[in-house]
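## retry 2 of 3
previous attempt timed out at serialization; input unchanged, resubmitting
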Amino acid sequence: MNEESAASGTTPGLVCAHHHLYSALARGMPAPPRVPRDFTDILDLVWWRLDRALDLETIRWSALLGALEALESGTTAIIDHHSSPSAIEGSLDVIADACAEVGVRVVCCYEVTDRNGPDGAKAGLAENERFLRAGGRGLVGAHACFTLTNETLDAVCGTAADLGVGVHIHVAEDAVDVRSGVRLAGRARDDWLLAHCVHLDRTLPGTVVHNPRSNLNNGVGYGRPARFPRVALGTDGIGADMLDEFRLAFVLARDSDLTSTPDQAWTWLEAGAALVPDVLEDVVTWSYTPVEPGRLAYTTDVRAERVAVGGEIVLDELGPTRVDSAEIRARAGEHAARLFRRMEEI
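## retry succeeded, writing output
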């Protein structure tokens, strides 16, 4: 970020380097059948109930709402990691189209996993391949090593290599996946996105995506991202307010090491532009000047007042220019209620 931009209160568009847009409708969802006791319980009782209940309509409204909230936060690009075992085929097109409707860039992938059986794994891999071969912008997605057989993991790696893209995978988010470093050694490549890496015991090729709020929420520990050479910031599905995520990343780093500075966390925020370079063409005008890490680390309620994506104004003082934000929120609420009913039936 140059001094002229900082003084004028502008930055390039921000990037959420690890998102789950399908979680945008999750707020207010039914309580799990029992209180989760650990990370695997959280997955089984909360998130895997939610993703099984998704259909293409709820995927669409989740993506519209998530993209809208991203835009309103000055985030012009999302790297999304999707899962909907009951509605796999065509799901990535639905997400890409919804984000384009709002005016937000998106890089898509479908989460390949063996937790839904071999047919589910093959269908997930096929959705990645179908979307990418049709010209979609994306990566090949995988859940985490502890839900992948070696055969499926090799298939993910092989498909990504054949298509000339990276793999977007959860890595050592919790101690249950602590052996992922061993399994990914020799497989991971520089164009991979490695989400979380809280318990990763080695450096792997690729970019580590630090998700501080989600890691705290799930009680999995602090990932100490400063130990890795390439780090970007994500939200793991808890919105896409990347300035807020930057602030949290900074104070967590400072709690771990009092010598940590806002500049370090800001480099993680800016690293998203290396993953989605198009955002350098976008311009976000903020409600606060100067836009400087040391100030923003301690200044809350900084809002995006104007956003241009690829030269087009997609957010101005009246709100989004392409879509009706009130309508999206209202319709998303209706579909959330339907989603919750389906969850209670599972």
